[in-house]
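<goal> How does this chain fold?
<sample>
Here is the protein in question

***
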Amino acid sequence: MSSWLVVLPAALVLFLVLRTFVVEAFRIPSSSMERTLLVGDFLLVNKWVYGAQVPFTRTRLPALRTPRHNDVVVFDWPVDPAKAFVKRLVGLPGDTLSMMQGVLRRNGTPLRESYAFRGVATGGVYDTILDARDSWGPLVVPPRHLFVLGDNRANSLDSRYWGFVPDSLLRGAPWFVYYSFTPDSTERAPWLTRIRWDRLGTTVR
């Protein structure tokens, strides 16, 4: 009995340290990142890649690297930091961005975005059904801020609607899909009967 009194607190401390500074689970609730990420995907998020934030402070641990164009990132929503979003990073500080008829330009160059597509607006837990903003800009990303878009441009609430993301709100980068199922309201337990085996272990790019 006495050994459990030592093991359980130690395991709890280890879990909290890992979740705070190393890795965190994240569930995809909407279609805003299809076809890269699907509703029903469960991810492990690498929190040390950009430097995890020390709780209750503004201090961040040393980062493995800085954010890059096209990174898929998890961050606290600037409008309500209690909610976390996942989007693709398309603009870094100093970039000039614009979009014309759905074609994104960065620093004057049209981008070939193989990951982006125009799906059908269906809404979701975090994303609101909004008309796709296909033409805007130019705008310049300010220092210490980022510009993010969902891969599913027709059904994504992103920087087109609420602006830039302070880099201090970055949580990390999705690592891989550790579990995935097809949501189905007609079945009692789709998380058991509708598992997408082909997505398990898929890295996020």
In short: The first strand starts at residue 23 and ends at 27. The first helix runs from residue 2 to 21. The chain has one domain: 24-199. The mean pLDDT is 85.
